[in-house]
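Ticket reopened. Same input as before:
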Amino acid sequence: MFEVVIGLEVHTQLNTNTKLFCSCPTSFNHTQNTNTCPTCLALPGALPVLNKEVLHKSIMFGTAVDATINRDSYFDRKSYFYPDSPSSYQITQLYTPVVEHGSLEIDLEDGSKKTIRINRAHIEADAGKNIHEGDISKVDLNRAGTPLLEIVSEPDMRSSDEVILYLKKLHSIVRYLDISDANMQEGSFRVDVNVSIRPKGDEKLYTRVEIKNINSFKFIEKAIEVEVARQIDAWEDGTYEEEIAQETRLFDQVKQETRSMRGKEEAADYRYFPEPDLLKAVVSDEMFEKYSKIPELPDEKRARFVSEYNMSEYNAGVLTASLEWAKYFETMMAEGASAKNAITWLTVELQGRLSGGITPETSPISAQTLATIVKAIDDKTISGKAAKDVLDYRMENEMEIDAIIEKLGLKQVSDTGAIETMVDEIMAANMDKVEQYRGGKEKLLGFFVGQVMKASKGSANPQVVNEIVTKKLA
Amino acid sequence: MITLKEALALSKEELEAFKDALKTQIEANKELNGYIDVNSVGEGVPIAIKDNIQVDGWAVTAASNILQGYVSPYNATVIDKMKAAGLSPLGRTNMDEFAMGSTTESSFYGKTLNPHNAEYVPGGSSGGSAAVVGAGLAIAALGSDTGGSIRQPAAYCGVVGMKPTYGRVSRYGLGAYASSLDQIGPITQNVEDAAILYDILSGHDEKDSTSSTLECLSVADKLDKSRKLKIAVIQGHTDEASDAIKSAYTKAIDALKSAGHEVVERELLDGKYDISAYYVTATAEATTNLARYDGIRYGNRVEGKNLSDTYIQTRSNGFGDEVKRRILLGNFVLSSGYYDAYYVKAQKVRSLIKAEYEKIFEEVDLVLSPVAPDTAPKFGEMSDPMKMYLSDIYTISVNLAGLPAISLPIENAASNGMPVGLQLIAAPFNEQTLFDGALSLESTINYTKGN
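Engineering reply: fixed in the latest deploy. New output:
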C-alpha cells in the first residue's frame, strides 16, 4: 500500500496597478510590448524599484494564513536564459521571503478538519510570454515584471481531494483579500504540483516530481492521478530508481500523461545570489498595522452566516466559498429580503437555473432583482409558485419585476372585501354543502377554499381565503 | 584647455564657438582614439561621456561588439542632471569592454593612446575619458569606477579622477558591470572642477534603490584647503610598488606635512584578500548583469540553428575574451556547491574590509594611498589577466567598502616620464573632507603636465 505525498507551489498574480519593479501598467489587453519600459525590457542601465503595494498585499496574505511577516525580507537573482525573461534572471526571494510559517485549514468530507502548513510566500517577478507561430517565435513582454506571490505549501496533502480543498480555500482567501484576480484560465493563479509516493507507514520522503502549470482543478486531479499511477507502476516493476527522477514534467491533457520537460543532464543550476540593485524590503510598524487589518475571511463569513441568518452549515459553506456569491447574498440582505427565502431563492432557484461557470457578474439576474422577487414573496404579493414563473420570465426578458407580475397576472388578491364577496357567492351556490359542513363534515373546508381559489384564477392569497371561509362557515 | 569653472562662465556665443573649435581639434587628433564618436546633445558646456552611460538617441555600446546597433532610448539620471545644470554631453569615450579591464585594450573600437606617450596605455576602464581630458580634448568627462576604473586611468593620464561614495551618484542609466561596486564620477583637469562636477552629478534618485537618502550638501562652494587634517598612510603599503610610486608617495607625504596636516601610520588587511573578494563579487554580479545581452531584444544577434544555438553564437561572437573570462568566473563562484566557499566567503571578507576602514576613520580624516603599483604599462604588457587583476590592489578596497576617493597627479616618473597619481580616501559621505584634502595636496604639489 502506498501513500501519496503532495506539496503545492501556487503562483498568484497580485492585482497591483503597476508592475513589481517599474511603473508600467499591469493590464493585459494592450498591444504586444506596449506596457514596457527600460526596466522591464532590461535595457542597459535600467534599475528596479520595489512597488510598495506588493509588500502591502503580501502582509495581508501572511496575516490571513497566520504566518510570520518578516519585517526585513531580501531579493535574490535566479539565473536562466529564456526569451520571455528579459534580464535572463528572475528577481525573487530565496533566502529570506516576506512571509514564512503559515497554515490554513481544510474541511474534509467526513467533517473533520486538517491543517496544511504553508512553508513560505515570496515575492517575484513574472516573465513575459512566448508566442509560437510555425517557425517563428515572438515575445510579448507586457506581462514581464508583473508581481507574483509564490505560495509554497509543505508536503502535507495525501490525496488529490485534499489538494483541491486546499486550492479552493487558498483561492477564496486570495479573492476575499482582493490581492489577486486569481483566474486560473487567464494564468493569474498557477499551480505546480510536487508529487511523490511512499509505502504506507514510511516517514521518509521519496523522489518528488514536479508537474507544472496545470490550468484547472479538473486537470490537477487528473495529473496527480496519472503521475501517482506512473510512480506506483515503476515501484512495483522494480524500476523506480531508474524511472522516477527529481524533475519537472508537463501534463498532457490530450494523452492524459505526464512528460519530462528536460533531461537530468540539463538539470538547471539557478546560481541564486542576493540582488545587488535592491535594498531589503522593510515592513515598517505603520505599514504592518495598516495592512494586517484584513477583511472578513471565508471561514469567518461562513460562521457568521450560520449564526446571523440561521443558515445551514452546508449552505453557508456553499455561499462563502466564492466571495462573489457571498457578496451577492449580502446585497440581497441589504435590499431587505428575508434570509430564509433569500437562501432558497439564491442557492436552489437561481443557481439551479444558471448553467455552470456563470458568476454573479455574468448572471442575468442581479442581487437587487432577486431581492425584489424574494421581497414580493415575503410580503405575499406573489406566491412562491408564481415567483418561479416571474424568475423564468425575467431570465428571458429584461423587465421590471413589478411589470412582470402585472403582465402575468400573478398578483395575489389579499383584499378581504373581494374575497368575502367570492366566498358569499360560492356559499350561496352550494347551500347543501354549507349545511353538511355545519352538520360536522369539516372536510368540506377544502372544497370551499378550492372553489374560491378557482374563482380567483389562483390569484387569491390562499391563507386569507382559508381564514375567511372558516369564519363564514362557522 | 579652459577649466570647467571657466567654461561655466562663458556666454552662449562663446560656448558655441568653443565647441566648434573643440570638434575641429578632436578631429585633428583622431589617432588618440579617446572618442568613439563626437555627437553632441543640446546646448551647454561640453562633457565627454563614457560609452556605458545612457544618452537618449546615442549609440551606447559599452565598447562591445554585442551592443553594436543599439541606440539608447533614455537618459541616465546623471545626463539629465548635467543638462539641467547647463552642461551637455559631447562625444562618447572609449573604454574596456563592459568596463572590464585596466588598459582600455579590450575595447571593440581598438586601443586608446596615453596622451603623455603613445606607447603607453591610458589605463582603464575609463581610458578614453581620462585620455581626452589629459590630451586637452575635453574640459571634463564622466567615467565609472567599479574597482578603480576612474582613479587608475586618471593617474596614468595625469588628471584628476574622483569616485563618489557608493549611493551618492545615481547608477540609473549606467550599463552595469558590478551593481554593488559601480559608481559614476568626474574626470577633470583639477580638483576644483571635480568638486563642481560632483555637485552636479550627486544626490538621491528614486530610480536607483541603492541611491542614498542622506542629505547631500554641495562641496564646491565650501572648498577649504586650509583645513588641517589627520591623514593616515598604511604600513608597508608601498613595499611592492615601483620606485616611481615610492618617490611620489614620499613627495606627497612631505607635501601634506608641509601644508600642516598630521600624517599617521595605520594598518589594513593584506591587499591580496581585497583582490579575491573583489573578483568573486564583481564577476558574480557581472555574470548576471551581462546575461541580458542575449540578442533577443536588441544588439548584435547572430542567428543560430535554434534558440540555444542563437544564444551561444550571439554571445560567443559578441563578447571579447576578458568579458567571457569574467562571465565564466562569475558563473563558477555562484554554482551550487561553490557558492558558500566563494561568494559567501567573499562577502565576509568585504564586511571585514569595511569594518577596518570604519575603525581607521574613527581616528583620521583621510587615507593616502597609491593608485597603482607602477606607472602606466606599455601596450601588451598587461596581457596576463592575473597580472592585470593584481594591479588593482590599491583601488578595489575602496569600492568594496563603498568609500569616496580621489586620484590626483603628483609628479612624472623619473624612469619613463609618465605621470604618477596618488589617491586620498575618505569616510563614506565625507566628500567635503576628501575635496578639501585633495585641494590642499594639489596646491602644495603644483603638478604640471611637463614637469
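Chain A touches chain B at residues 38, 41-50, 77, 79, 81, 83, 86-89, 137, 139, 141, 269, 271-273, 276-279 (CB under 8 Å). Residues 366 and 378 of chain A are 18 Å apart (CA to CA). Please confirm and we'll close it.
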